[in-house]
Design a protein that fits this description.
This protein is an alpha/beta fold. The chain has helices spanning 117-124, 158-167, 211-220, 235-248, and strands spanning 30-41, 44-50, 65-69, 91-94, 98-100, 105-111, 130-137, 149-154, 173-180, 194-201, 228-234, 256-262. The strands form two sheets. Strands 4-3-7-1-2-6-5 form a seven-stranded antiparallel beta sheet. Strand 11 (228-234), helix 4 (235-248) and strand 12 form a beta-alpha-beta unit. Bound molecules: flavin-adenine dinucleotide.
């Protein structure tokens, strides 16, 4: 759901049509090259993308997203998308983890989940390979005055969690509940805030996505009143956990931001699944 501040919305004029009427402007595609590939854990790779076309690529809030366009089978490099052309088939949503504007670099953490153009590309990525990048799209407005923060999600949301943790002040308290395939995926999380991280294992059967998160959440019980919650994982699991938080654990609806990051059995799940249906 999008919110608008009426006070900040100028009245439509002939020179400035209403925002509703304006076609959504696509950001220009930026050509980037792989400069570094790091293995963080058996199923997580950090890939650094670099290119002069990243000039002006700025990220305002944590947990924002960008679109990456991957080569089609048989291509060594994706076609440059045309401004009004069709959407690239192999375009997927990823979190800009760290942006180093001075050297035109962005880091992206990829879950190697198996089939899919993004995961398959990341598993073989090597320096010199080319992608196109578009974005960024909006992120999460962190309430810096909140008494506590709770991040709940799976491995696909770990990069988003890292950006949120990096944005928290030293006075903040954050609980993190993360579902990964197994203990080999666990790693330290960095933040100025006081962080209490709890890792749960799903196992290699993706049809079980979210079950371990749900069980751990039920065991932990209701978060302290006023806690801000960012919940991001498989789409159906996100809906179940959102319901559990609001209907069983009594969390105020407005304190929960839900995001379906991927959907079991679905190719290229959309980037705007908030689970509010
Ligand atoms: C806002 C946002 C930010 C995101 N940031 C990141 C990020 O930084 N890093 C990251 O790794 N992912 C991230 N994702 C998730 C990523 O967009 C999806 O996982 C995407 O589907 C991967 O594309 P693919 O080509 O590998 O698979 P697809 O072609 O889209 O899907 C193929 C099959 O793989 C399954 N699948 C897809 N993703 C997963 C998964 N994570 N685990 C298990 N099975 C899966 C699908 O259900 C489908 O059956 C983000 C998603 C959103 C909406």
């Amino acid at each position: 759901m999008s919110t608008t501040n009426p006070a900040a919305t100028p009245a439509p004029t002939a020179a400035s049509p209403s925002p509703e009427a304006a076609p959504r402007k696509r950001r220009p595609p930026r050509r980037v090259q792989v400069t570094r590939v790091q293995t963080l854990s058996p199923l997580m790779r950090r890939i650094t993308l670099q290119g002069a076309e990243l000039e002006g690529f700025e990220v305002a809030d944590p947990a924002c997203y960008m679109k990456l366009i991957f080569p089609e089978p048989g291509q060594t490099e994706p076609d440059r998308p045309l401004p009004d052309g069709p959407r690239a088939k192999s375009m997927r949503t990823y979190t800009p983890l760290a942006v180093r504007a001075d050297v035109h670099e962005v880091d992206v953490d990829f879950v190697l989940h198996g089939d899919g153009p993004a995961s398959t590309w990341a598993a073989q990525a090597q320096p010199g390979q080319v992608l196109y990048l578009m974005g960024p799209g909006p992120g999460y407005k962190v309430a810096l005055d909140a008494p506590a923060h709770f991040l709940i999600g799976d491995d696909s949301a770990l990069p988003a969690f890292e950006t949120i943790l990096a944005a928290l002040p030293a006075t903040a308290q954050a609980r993190v509940l993360i579902e990964v395939v197994d203990a080999a995926e666990e790693r330290p999380l960095h933040s100025a805030a006081k962080v209490d991280a709890h890792w749960t294992a799903r196992g290699s059967d993706n049809t079980q996505a979210g079950q371990a998160l749900e069980a751990a959440l039920r065991k932990a019980g209701a978060p302290a009143p006023g806690t801000r919650i960012y919940l991001a994982c498989e789409a159906a699991a996100m809906r179940r956990i959102r319901k559990l938080l609001i209907e069983e654990l009594g969390v105020e609806r407005s304190l929960v931001v839900g995001r379906g990051y991927w959907k079991l059995g679905t190719v290229n799940h959309p980037d705007h699944d908030y689970g509010e249906d």
